[in-house]
Amino acid sequence: MPIKRTGNFDLAKEMKIRARKMISQFLSEEELLEVTIEINKTTSKLSFHAPDAISEKITINLAKLDQ
User: Fold this and answer.
1) How far apart are CA 50 and CA 44, in angstroms?
2) Which of 42, 33, 39 is nearest to 12 (CA)?
3) Residue 51 domain-assigned (yes or no)
4) How deeply is 37 buried, as exposed, middle or buried, from its count of CB atoms within 10 A (0-12, 13-18, 19+)?
5) Do residues 54 and 27 lie in contact, with contact meaning Cβ atoms separated by under 8 Å?
6) Is residue 40 part of a domain?
7) DSSP characters over 1-67
8) pLDDT digits (tens, 9 = 90+) for 5-54
């Protein structure tokens, strides 16, 4: 029998936590501090806001993880 879980679960917060953990694999602590993660509530897409060099690093490395 499945276990039912009740209560509130903030999915957006959990998505941000998991995204931060994912990018922490290839960014330094200093670079992580410069990154903000936002979620578009209508499309549920993640947006990473950071300086250009860090954004490029995120784009390249996330593409590698996706393969």
Assistant:
1) 19
2) 39
3) yes
4) middle
5) yes
6) yes
7) -PPP--S---HHHHHHHHHHHHHTTTS-HHHHHT-EEEE-TTT--EEEE--HHHHHHHHHHHHHHH-
8) 677 778 888 999 999 999 999 999 999 999 999 999 898 899 999 999 99
Asked whether residue 7 is assigned to any structural domain, the reply reads: no
Q: How far is CA 45 from the centre of its chain?
A: 10
Q: Would the pTM count as exceeding 0.90?
A: no
Report how many domains make up the chain: 1
- Cβ atoms of residues 58 and 35 within 8 Å: yes
**Domain limits at 18?**
12-66
Q: How far apart are CA 50 and CA 5, in angstroms?
A: 36
Residue 4 falls inside a structural domain: no
